[in-house]
Amino acid sequence: MNGYLKRILNARVYDVAIETPLDAAPTLSSRTGNAILLKREDMQPVFSFKLRGAYNKMAYLTPEQLKRGVITASAGNHAQGVALSAHKMGCRAIIVMPTTTPQVKIEAVKHFGRHAVEIVLHGDSYNDAYDHAKTLEEKNQLTFVHPFDDPDVIAGQGTIGMEILRQRSQPIHAIFCAIGGGGLIAGVAAYVKQVRPDIKIIGVQSVDSDAMNQSMQAGKRVQLNDVGLFADGTAVKLAGEETLRICQKYVDEIVLVDTDAVCAAIKDVFQDTRSILEPSGALAVAGAKLYAKREKLKGETLVTVCSGANMNFDRLRFVAERADIGEKRESILAVTIPETPGSFRKFCTQLGKRNITEFNYRFADPKAARVFVGIQVRDQAETTELVEKLQAHKLPTLDLSDNEMAKLHLRHLVGGHAPEATDEILYRFEFPERPGALMKFLNSMSHDWNISLFHYRNHGADYGRVLVGMQVPDHDKQAFTDFLNTLGYRYWDETGNPAYKLFLG
Known about the structure:
With 505 residues, this protein is of the alpha/beta class.
């Protein structure tokens, strides 16, 4: 590991990268009771830390290697780092990107690379692009610049840790880093643990993209079958071999956060800096908040690496919707009230002066009315208190704040039961969002089973979500299971979801 200390101290990143500031987050710090510091890698020329590792790798290539050119596979930040580095060095670069890559990222690679970069679109995923890039590497005698699993790339990212310790000589309880393949945290840990071993190094991953976490627990690399698409910058199915080795030695812990927590973290950083991080860029902040609350920390200093800000503008709608839920400042409730005069007034009286963010109701039963309501609250404790209060006044209440189907679909779909829809089952699907994707999904659903419910909403993200109800008799259940296994999309069975039973079933 001493070799990494030497590599990091001699890393040649500052020809293109800047030493980013370590900014205080006063509002977030006040709310958590700890000093939260933001390492602003979103302020790099390519709006991401990835420039450091890409340039450092290329800076140590021989003149002959540079003359032949480099190649990489990436759908985002690493591609931009390689593109800018190639332009700076006058080096040819081929960047293989999945066909599903948003146009905004393709245009960014063209902008940073100028005339030095050739973009090749291939496959539907990073793995497809990677395999194709390796084929082109061998065919054209190019040098592959790996996004994370390379000592020079790791060392480039390690300069972040070097800067943090130079900028903050006072005690630091922990440094939080997002993890995809592991290059960022491996570099930071390799430096910090040899200089200030008392500082905890804590990784943060999405609950649905935790390849490194599972690999650490298993003691070997674990490949995921699929990964979540929200935090696309860290959606890696297989962690690096070298990065895992370093993480096993130096990383103290990995915490997992969900989509709502990431959205809340994006809002937190915006409130303190007026900057908007991409989901992967906000993972460290979300992890620090979770860790501080879990450990009941007070008065400690927590450094979070804000790793990127390449946010698709259309995604902001989804982030804004989910941020308050992630911070537990909005509760989503299903409340059953008697269908009698005065019951609605009684229900509203129990809510008091709280701000109602959403209210959905449709007559369905002559004896009971079921209300879907969103309410602004201070925290989870207030939600619990409100639910108990409603229950005490004989208003049965179900807290749906952590119910994914209710938050994604039901709040836009509440419309009543369908007694005629016999043998109905309900499934939620996810698929990569691109032109024609919905039509392709609809075509794949062509079958003998009647579709009794269908809900789709474009969330401005890189993936589409569909809620589908189908009438499938018991004797067809095995055929339906076989159909799901050949469909090729991620899916969840929501037939037993209590929210479905209350409002739609």
